[in-house]
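Project channel, design review

CF: Before we commit to the Actinacidiphila alni constructs, I'd like one complete example in the thread so the newer folks can see what an input/output pair looks like. Taking L-rhamnose mutarotase.
RD: sounds good, go ahead.
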Amino acid sequence: MQRICFLMTVIEGREKEYQRRHDEIWPELVAALRDAGVRNYSLFRRGTTVIAYAECEPDAATAFGKVGATEVNARWSAWFQDVLAEHLGPDGGLIEAAEVWHMD
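CF: and here is what came back for L-rhamnose mutarotase:
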């Protein structure tokens, strides 16, 4: 299992819409995340910065790769193009934060 933390940026002025869309998250997207091995997934927002945390089996690349291959993820990602300013780095991968310390 791999813990991952990554960052996203909401377009300024679209914070309420970002929240609204997550208040109505699609059950089929949640199912795709679970089926791919994503667990304990949380999003936190401070201003326009979103901090995401998830635990992935066997690792983040595999789990999020499986999610990325689903039709529901393609629809969700397209739907968020008018809300997210940045969610992928220049290499096309998640904008990860390095783990400094962990307590079980």
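RD: helpful, thanks. Strands lie at 2-10, 38-46, 49-56, 84-86, 95-97.
CF: The first strand starts at residue 2 and ends at 10.
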